[in-house]
Design brief:
Blueprint (H helix, E strand, L loop, with lengths): L4 E7 L3 H12 L6 E8 L5 H7 L1 H7 L2 E7 L4 H8 L7 E3 L11 H11 L3 E13 L4 E6 L12 H5 L11 E4 H7 L13 H11 L1 E14 L12 H20 L6 H22 L3 H13 L5 H11 L1 H12 L1
Parallel strand pairs: 1-2, 1-4, 2-3, 5-8
Antiparallel strand pairs: 4-7, 5-6, 5-7
Length: 323
């Protein structure tokens, strides 16, 4: 195929992963690609390693670009990088992950056959890196409807949604139709909601039932959230709500305020749920009262609130979790 695919890759101090990532690009069975590396102010030898692959990338048939700026964060780096995209299609994998050899070609083939779709998503292989071994499983692990094509509200409210970036390929004509200014809310963390929500609002999303992205989780990485304290979790939810809200505001769509309120109530529910997990009845009360004020209390949130507010049941929960 002679259709140009842009590969937009943000990088911040990714030196230890660049070799693995670059080799997965060179192994692709598709070569008409515009490769854009966006260096987000790395202080390690990322630039040296990226540039060491320039000849191999060009020999492969890729065009190659390297852009450096002072550290801005992931969302802001994608916001800067999207300006350089020239391809018919776009993928934006992370530098610490990898692509199976047919990842790009299968997505291109799918979208070429389905002109009415604005984007396609795939499964992913989740690889948990350990000492001397890797554990892997196909994701997502939760149930979802593989035939559902209108996914805007699903991704707005994180229902049946996953955000591993290399799982997606977007049609740039649909992307630009949905987001004419290519506006990406420039957060320090997160880029996928900004990339996906506008196009999902206007276009159908297809699905390839194969793991066409290899997503690595390492101890202490942004993907590893197993030991976060409650305040960290709540702050993360605040950031998620902000970037989704700002993205929706810039979409200029009917019922914008309704969608923003839906997002706010969703994250109140999430915060109440996590307060329940951490047995923090004071914070649970704050979030419950706001949900009640918004007339958005569900049976599930009511049960969690009552459980965490009842001393006896709260002690039972704590004992069960400590076993």
């Amino acid at each position: 195929m002679d259709i140009l695919v842009s590969i937009l890759t943000p990088c911040y101090n990714g030196a230890k992963y660049i070799d693995r990532y670059a080799k997965s690009l060179l192994a692709q069975d598709y070569s008409n690609c515009q490769l854009i590396f966006m260096d987000d102010g790395s202080t390690d030898n990322s630039k040296e390693l990226i540039m060491s692959y320039e000849k191999q990338f060009k020999d492969k048939g890729f065009s190659f670009e390297y852009h450096y700026h002072d550290n801005l964060g992931l969302g802001a780096t994608i916001a800067e990088g999207i300006k350089y995209v020239k391809g018919t299609y776009l993928v934006w994998p992370d530098v610490d992950d990898t692509l199976p050899v047919d990842s790009i070609s299968k997505k291109v083939f799918y979208l070429e056959q389905k002109a009415e779709y604005g984007l396609v998503r795939t499964r992913f292989m989740e690889i948990i890196e350990g000492t001397g071994f890797n554990h892997s499983e196909i994701g997502p692990s939760f149930k979802f409807d593989p035939n559902k094509e209108n996914l805007f509200e699903d991704y707005l409210l994180s229902k049946g949604a996953w955000l591993q970036p290399g799982c997606f390929m977007v049609r740039m004509s649909a992307f630009d139709d949905s987001n004419p200014n290519r506006y990406i809310f420039p957060t320090r963390r997160g880029q996928d909601w900004q990339m996906l929500l506008p196009i999902m609002y206007k276009y159908k999303c297809g699905f390839i039932d194969e793991p066409l992205y290899e997503y690595y989780i390492r101890k202490g990485s942004m993907s590893d959230q197993t030991n976060d304290i409650l305040e960290t979790v709540l702050h993360r939810y605040d950031m998620y709500e902000e970037l989704i809200t700002e993205t929706v505001k810039h979409m200029n769509i009917p019922n914008c305020s309704m969608y923003i309120q839906m997002v706010h109530n969703h994250y109140l529910e999430e915060k109440l749920g996590r307060s329940f997990d951490y047995c923090d009845k004071n914070k649970a009360k704050i979030f419950f009262n706001e949900l009640r004020k918004n007339k958005a209390v569900t049976p599930k949130t009511l049960v969690k609130y009552l459980l965490v507010q009842t001393p006896f049941l709260n002690n039972v929960i704590n004992k069960l979790r400590s076993r």
